[in-house]
Fold this sequence. Notes:
Elements: H1 5-19, H2 26-33, H3 37-49, E1 53-56, E2 62-65, H4 74-81, H5 107-125, H6 128-138
Antiparallel strand pairs: 1-2
Amino acid sequence: MRYSKSTRYALYAALEMAAASGPVTVAQVAALHRLPETALAKVMQALVRAGIARGVRGVGGGYVLARSAGEISTLDVIAAFDPPRREGDCLLDDGGGGECRGHLDCRLRRLFDEVDEQLRCTFASVSLETLVRGARARQ
């Protein structure tokens, strides 16, 4: 499974917000993860629109999580940028439209559907807080 750059940037930003004791800025996250600020700024705005983050104005402002880190799953962040694969879309598609050209009982499609469901369940079960705690424990 491949995820967009926006999803990767959003996960980095969400984790930084989860770990921080106050607002984080686009410049801070961009510098820490070596990301382009303009792209990250757009990602942050999308996180706000998705209800994952909110902006804090003024001196010392930036972005914070809109809910506690324990209430936001990695799936919440991923789904804001890479919606789930539609049932019937084939991961082996050659770029010609996405619809499965195989039979309705295609063994590969059933496998991909099962793997997608397992991924969604795993991402849904892991909160930002879990990831931050795990990183702190390893340090």
